[in-house]
Amino acid sequence: MAVTEAERDAMSRALSLALNGPRGLNPQVGAVILSAAGAVIAEGWHRGAGTPHAEVDALSKLAPGQAEGATAVVTLEPCNHTGHTGPCAQALIDAGVARVVYALDDPGADSGGGARRLRAAGLDVECGEQADAAHELIADWLIVQRLGRPHVTVKWAQSLDGRAAASDGTSQWISGPAARADVHRRRAASDAIVVGTGTVLADDPSLTARDGDDLHARQPVPVVIGIRATPANAALRRHPREPLFYSTHDLTAVLADLRARGFQRVFVEGGPALISAFLAAGLADTVLAYLAPVLLGGPRVALTDIGVGTIADVRRLVIDEWLPLGDDLLAVAHPASALEERH
C-alpha cells in the first residue's frame, strides 16, 4: 500500500516532534497516530533514556480502544526489545494499531526487528518514508552505533612548516580570526571538547565555544585527559558545563565512558601528544588541519609519534574539502580505508 498524503504530512510532523527530545544515549524519535480516516489523534516524542519511547508516549494520550485500526507514523522502526521500557512494537500491537509507517530501520542488534514482529502480528508495515531526513536527524547517533563509540574529530593549527608553536611554546595566534571563528562553530556542534593536561598547564584554555565575546548557546563539555592534576583556578573550571577529568592514558576507556554518558561527537583539540595518541590508536574519524601562511621552525611540531616508522606505514588521508578561511586554509579529511588506499 502506497504512503498516503496524510501519512506523508504526519511523518514531516513526527520529524519536527523528534527535535524536542535530547541528543544523547538514545536517538531522537517522533511519532504521530492517525485515525482510520487519516486525522491526527495523538503525538509523541522520546524525552531521553528511561522515558517512554515516542510511540508509547503518543499512545498514552489516547483512551483505551481509541487506537483500534489506527496508523502509527514513526521516524525510526519501533523497537523490539525490553530495556528501560518495553518493546514499542508490542505496544502498538496491543493497542490495536493496524498500520505502521516508519522512516528508518533500527540498526541495533537487540532493538531492531520491530517491523518483523509487527508483520507477524498481521499489521501492514511501510518503511522508507522521508528516510533521508530521518537519517540526517539522527546521523550522529547512527555513527555511534556503527563505531561503538563517539565520533572523534582531531583538530590542530599549524604553520606551513608543520609547527604548532614557536620555540618558546607560544602559539596564540598561529591562525587568523576567520579560522578561529570556524573552530568555535565546530566546538559548538560537538558534545565534548577534549584536551590533555599538558595543554591545560601550558595555555590555561577556557574550552568554551564563542561567537566573538559571546558564548554560543550550545556548549561542549570540557574533558581533560592525563595523570597530572588540573589547577584549582584553571579557566576551564569556570566553564558553563561541569568538566570531566580522566586520570588515564587509555583513550578507548575514555571514549567508552563518554558514550555511556550519551556523547555522540568528541572534538579533540590538543596538544600534539594527545592528538597524536588518538591518530596512532586509529581513533580519529575526521581530521581538521588549519594551515597558516607563517614559518616558525624549531622543535614544536604539530604531531609527535603516530606509529609511522617507515614510509610503508604512512597514515593516508582522503581530503573531503579544502576550505579557505581568510589567509588560512583548512584541510578537512578522513583516514583512508583499505579500499580507498588501493584506489
Short description:
It is built from eleven helices and 15 strands. It has 343 residues and is an alpha/beta fold.
Question: How would you characterize the overall build of this protein?
Answer:
The protein is an alpha/beta fold. It has helices spanning 5-18, 54-59, 88-95, 114-120, 131-137, 139-147, 177-188, 197-203, 251-260, 272-280, 338-342; strands spanning 30-34, 40-45, 71-76, 99-104, 124-127, 151-159, 192-196, 210-211, 214-215, 221-225, 244-246, 265-270, 286-292, 317-325, 328-335. 27% of the residues lie in helices and 24% in strands. The longest helix is centred in the N-terminal third of the chain and has 14 residues, at 5-18.
Q: Output mean pLDDT.
A: 92
Structural category is: alpha/beta
Tally of DSSP helical segments? 11
* Record field, number of beta strands: 15
> How would a textbook summarize the main sheet?
8 strands, mixed
- C-alpha Rg, in Å? 24 Å
* Poorly predicted tracts of residues: none
Q: Outline, from the CA principal axes?
A: elongated
| Order of strands, widest sheet | 11-10-7-12-6-13-15-14
Strand content: 15-25%
Q: Give the fraction of residues assigned to helices.
A: 25-40%
Task: Give the N-to-C terminal Cα separation.
Answer: 43 Å
Q: What's the helix-strand series?
A: HEEHEHEHEHHEHEHEEEEHEHEEEH
